[in-house]
Amino acid sequence: MHAIAEATPNIAVIKYWGMRDSALVLPLNSSISVTMDFSLRTRTRVEFGDFKKDSAFLNGKELGGDGHTRVLKIINQVRKLACAGEKCRVQSENFFPTKAGFASSASGFAALAVAADAALALHLGPDALSRLARVSSGSACRSVLGGFVQWNAGEQKNGLDSYAVQLAPASHWEGLLNIAAVVDAGEKAVGSAEGMQLTVQTSALFKKRLAELPERTARMEKAIKKRDAHSFFAIAMEESASMHACMADTKPPLRYMNNVSREIVRAVESLNKTHGENVCGYTFDAGPNAHVYTTKAHAAEVKNALSKVAGVQKLFTCGVGEGPRVLEAPAK
Ligand code: 2P0
User: Are 224 and 168 in contact (CB under 8 A)?
Assistant: First the structure.
């Protein structure tokens, strides 16, 4: 009983930062993301069988500690649903540009959820698959879908209404590109889960952010529906600035962007000013790397501007992706 699946990361343009329940990974606000294409992906093989113990390998290395625990959260759920008792072996490989320094937990846990579901022939629908991936990594619940995705925060204590839905498929806006600028591939000082809860506990600005988000989220949804590039870039930048302001307001302050990141912000602003409209827009996650969204028409110009920023180590271009795919599954 084995299956192989691939999934890709997603980049949020309305960010998830703050949980109302950290055990179930329930967010304080809804978020919106764009799924990346297969130029970055995780391939995961899940096998259930007569093994002595459960084991999980990432890029050939056996996982222990937190990594192993997070894998088992998904595996235990599918075993329960399938009334299966077999031990499992998980083998996961990341196909990312060398030392890209981008988080792979979203693609990794989405690929695991899809492969585990396929291996046990559960055939869960997209809502259940999204909830399944969520328990191991919040952002992974958005990577089980392609295109433009909204993770609805939900209100229920048990998290049944906290899952991602597709706002529009990848084909809705094919010309949209993410020019990712690798600034630093090092490990982050404070992990996302820990950092976001520090913000929730200590930042007064965060309360203001939560109050503003429903309106900003609605504007982003509208910009996506209308393929309104100027507004999409503007809201993405406004949102990135809002999250990073709350990070800076956290006690002690969280500083994920660095001087190179700030030079990228300036380069993007300068390009937009020259055009008299937004031809691109940046967003930064819990790290210094930039994701600069633009359209095909302006991609060369954006790449040229970013390549001139001192400290940018590498650029790669990614389109909107279609979501996970199952490569092998048991015959029906
Ligand atoms: C997001 N981030 O919406 C937000 C914005 C980072 C900033 O979800 O702990 O790196 O595996 O959930 O996937 C970061 O989450 O960490 C995140 P875990 P991950 O994408």
Answer: yes
